[in-house]
Specification:
267 residues, alpha/beta, Rossmann fold, 6-stranded mixed beta sheet, 8 helices, 10 strands
């Protein structure tokens, strides 16, 4: 399978108030194949979201490069869609108006954009709520709306920054399955390439083809793990005899490096 995204030697420094720069990322390199679901996993402050923002074109790397289909990423583009933790919905627009927003910017007719929007609204289980405003929706419904809005624009790559962090545990499990359903191939639409940031080891194992485990700051690649489960993923995946041992293995690896980072900071 062809490499869709290439991250090559990416480092990121932020200037500090005291003149000492913050080293967020250090020499991060890996590739993501077309149609692959890759999760970035690591402790707070390890640079996961920073790397995602560089892929989105919101920030520039201090060193290294990021390439999409052979083209350097130098800024935001319609070929990438972003789903944020805080939904980022327009509060004055209804659900369907939020979903059609990007399509309207692309110059589609009202009938065409509403047809596409209703298709994705149905896919995320929100049919009947088209005319509700964000404040009339639960947190889970808002995130479904944000997901529908992103995929309705047909981005080649979907970037997701801890989209379920504020969702309760029961809804979270359900939304994980919704994310995979929306990103799956269907009706001639190829499977989405996804880069997903999370703190949750369980979530990364459930969703991903591969998991990029990152060290505490400065973020480096600790290991890249292949997830042994096929798709579709269901509750049976979580009950698979390989699921819990893989979660435990990742946790132990992260725990060792977090303790080392704490001890190093004390010295």
């Amino acid at each position: 399978m062809a490499v869709k995204l290439e991250i090559a030697g990416v480092s990121k420094h932020y200037p500090g108030h005291d003149g000492i720069s913050v080293h967020a990322l250090d020499g991060v390199s890996f590739g993501i194949e077309d149609g692959e679901f890759v999760s970035l996993l690591g402790p707070s402050g390890c640079g996961k979201s920073t790397l995602l923002h560089i892929l989105a074109g919101f920030e520039a790397a201090t060193a290294g490069r990021v390439v999409l289909d052979g083209r350097p990423i130098s800024g935001p583009g319609a070929d990438r869609g972003m789903v944020f933790q805080d939904y980022a919905l327009f509060p004055w627009k209804t659900l369907i108006e939020n979903v059609t927003f990007g399509l309207e910017l692309r110059g589609m007719t009202r009938d065409e954009r509403e047809r596409i929007a209703r298709d994705y609204i149905a896919l995320v289980g929100l049919t009947g709520f088209e005319n509700r405003f964000p404040h009339q929706l639960s947190g889970g419904m808002r995130q479904r709306c944000a997901l529908a809005r992103s995929v309705a624009n047909s981005p080649e790559v979907l970037l997701m920054d801890e989209p379920l962090a504020a969702i309760d545990a029961l809804t979270r499990n359900q939304l994980q399955e919704e994310i995979l359903k929306v990103c799956a191939a269907r009706d001639g639409v190829p499977r989405k390439t996804v880069v997903y940031v999370t703190h949750s080891i369980d979530e990364a194992v459930f969703l991903s083809d591969r998991i990029v485990v990152m060290t505490p700051r400065p973020g480096r690649i600790l290991q890249v793990l292949e997830v042994p489960f096929g798709y579709p993923r269901t509750d049976a995946t979580r009950l698979d005899s390989r699921f819990s041992p893989l979660v435990a293995e990742i946790w132990q690896t992260l725990k060792v490096h977090m303790v080392q980072a704490i001890d190093s900071g004390r010295n």
